[in-house]
Amino acid sequence: MPVCTNCAYPAQHVYTTYKTKSNIRLGVCERCDQFLDPLIEHPDLIILLDLILLKPRVFLHLLFNRGSPPFDADKGVEIPAVERQERRKARIHQDVWKLGYLSVIAETTLRLLPAFTAGGGIAMNQLIRIGSIVLVEGIAQHAVTLCLALSALRLRGWYTMDNEGDKIDEKRRDGRRENFLPSLIPLTILYTSLVPLLLQLLLSIWYTPPPSIHEHLPSTSTTISFLSTLPFKVPPELMELETTLNHAWSRSDRIWVGTRLLGGMSAGFGLRVLLPTKPWETTAIVLAGWLAAAWISQISHILVGS
């Protein structure tokens, strides 16, 4: 069941088709009197730009409305609600698998790119090892994020296993809640993580990253101490801490840090559109997924070697 991309009010159909598929009429929301989903008529490039700009309407379009069948006014027959729901579940699961494959391939490529650009060959066992680690990290991240998000929703009473919520006023209906599926959570994270990964791949054309995300470039610039410019005396411990942080930052892979930070903020924003959680709850859920992936990464490198 689709929703309005302006107010998330549920609707039966996003648009209506007539004798030809090109002759359509967009539906109007009963609550806000706006078009239900103008992105239906937009090309994929506009949808990609909206996803990069983190517009809320693009998340509602991709998660709830994309691929929803229209009402055929010529035949006057609509697909039963149960069949539409089954089709939607199958489409969402298919999207999760597709985006998951792309995410694993992109992350594996990024981790193997330094060795490839250095002129060395990539052995098949190395490719399988890195790909397996990336896959396990992704599974751990999505599993922890999904469990914590569902727990928060259950505590709020927003999501129940039997999808039977309390009856509310017609004008206060929330299409996100009525059409919520647990698989929408990993799908949202995958949508928001692909753009930073592709950005890092593009930036790698002009920037050669370190041989590994756990190895760092040597520092070639002289850092200026901010604490030393203060008009009062700073304890030596703070000065040493500042020096250590500046040294670590100068030797770090800044593009990797920047794209991961962008991916985390994008994931948090996407989950905020999908879920009724508070900002601190969403941040904690995303950080917990990151920590789980980082822990799995450390364990994997210890077991199989770096």
Automatic annotation (TrEMBL):
It is found in: Endoplasmic reticulum membrane; Golgi apparatus membrane. Keywords: Endoplasmic reticulum, Golgi apparatus, Lipid metabolism, Lipid transport, Membrane, Sphingolipid metabolism, Transmembrane, Transmembrane helix, Transport. InterPro entries: Arv1. The keyword Membrane applies. The chain crosses the membrane at residues 180-207, 282-304. The keyword Phosphoprotein does not apply. It is a multi-pass membrane protein. Belongs to the ARV1 family. One of its GO terms (cellular component) is endoplasmic reticulum membrane. Its main location: endoplasmic reticulum. Mediator of sterol homeostasis involved in sterol uptake, trafficking and distribution into membranes. One of its GO terms (biological process) is sphingolipid metabolic process. It comes from Kwoniella bestiolae CBS 10118. This is Protein ARV.
